[in-house]
Design a protein that fits this description.
With 316 residues, the chain is of the alpha+beta class. The protein is 52% helix and 11% strand. The chain folds into two domains: 3-58, 434 Repressor (Amino-terminal Domain) (Orthogonal Bundle), CATH 1.10.260; 75-315, no CATH class. The longest helix is centred in the C-terminal third of the chain and has 27 residues, at 289-315. The chain is globular and about 80 Å long.
């Protein structure tokens, strides 16, 4: 097949079946129906600009068109240095996911840290995580958490992201260290004098409530949420979104930055890899009550350890 035929075939697979390909091409490229028909019928070729526009619109990797199996073109999220960059980051993430149907999508999340869908919920812990990200990604000297100002609109604009996660089938893989970084961050900024005593304990309380809510979901054993415990896998916060017509793989490269690809072959390989890891993991939904309690009690013991550490620090 020629490159243009491959591109058109990919677009057909990504489109709803009840929409005309000619109409879709005309709308995206802002050209007439006749001009779109000539391109679809292969009587004229897409320009380079038109090809890029279509690939961007459908999140198609250009390497798919050239067919080199050893190379992969990926999209890189924008570097974050300002609050405006945060808005752009979440806007772009929502844009990628907007082309996916929540009812037909499965999310696989390898949770090195507490997954992002739990950290955009408008809690004090949410604000603290934004403070952490901003501190790690910004060159300026950190001010205290209490002086950190954050536009509420940034959090509010992420309701779509939170809703997408809640309404989609989600498979998360955790291990004993998944909550460690968040707990250590609370302790670090408290001891550095950049987080006060009251807020430190409230953030730990928020984390405990997240763990409680996840445990309750496991007990219900619903189809839309499955949690696996893996003692061997080194988790990396990678996320795979799969559906019948479209997939997207997010691979982290720094605290909040991701490489993103919708290349079908790459996404399929990642799904096979995760499926293999799941087979070596323990389902906390289907485990007995004892095994489930052992896992979640470890989480609560860690939270309690850091709580006492902070309380004892005050008494010293």
């Amino acid at each position: 097949m020629k490159h243009q035929e491959i591109l058109l075939a990919r677009i057909r697979n990504l489109m709803p079946k009840n929409i005309s390909l000619n109409d879709e091409i005309a709308k995206i490229l802002d050209i007439s129906y006749d001009a779109a028909h000539r391109r679809v019928s292969m009587k004229s070729k897409f320009s380079i600009e038109e090809t890029i526009t279509l690939c961007k619109y459908y999140s198609i990797s250009m390497d798919t068109l050239f067919g080199d199996k050893n190379y992969l073109l990926v999209e890189k999220t924008k570097k974050i240095e300002t609050l405006s960059d945060f808005k752009d980051y979440f806007r772009k993430t929502n844009e990628v996911l907007s082309h996916m149907d929540t009812q037909e999508t499965t999310i696989y999340y390898a949770a090195k840290d507490i997954p992002m869908n739990y950290t955009v919920s408008g809690t004090l812990f949410s604000k603290f995580k934004f403070f952490i990200w901003f501190t790690l990604l910004n060159k300026k000297q950190s001010s205290s958490f209490e002086k950190f100002t954050f536009e509420e609109s940034v959090l509010n604009e992420n309701n779509n992201l939170k809703t997408f996660f809640e309404n989609t089938k989600r498979i998360e893989i955790w291990n004993d260290t998944t909550i460690n970084s968040s707990l250590q961050q609370v302790n670090y900024f408290f001891e550095a004098g950049l987080l006060n005593y009251k807020n430190a304990l409230l953030i730990l309380k928020d984390i405990a409530e997240i763990i409680n809510s996840i445990e309750k979901k496991c007990e219900l054993d619903t189809h839309n949420f499955q949690l696996y415990y893996n003692e061997l896998l080194i988790l990396n916060n990678s996320a795979l979104f799969t559906s019948k017509e479209k997939s997207a793989f997010f691979l982290p490269y720094n605290a909040l930055g991701y490489y993103v690809t919708s290349d079908l072959k790459t996404c399929k390989e990642q799904e096979q890899y995760i499926t293999n890891q799941i087979s070596n993991s323990k389902s906390l939904n289907q485990s007995g009550k004892k095994d489930r309690k052992i896992f979640f009690n470890k989480m609560h013991q860690k939270i309690e350890f850091h709580k006492q550490k902070i309380e004892n620090y005050i008494l010293e």
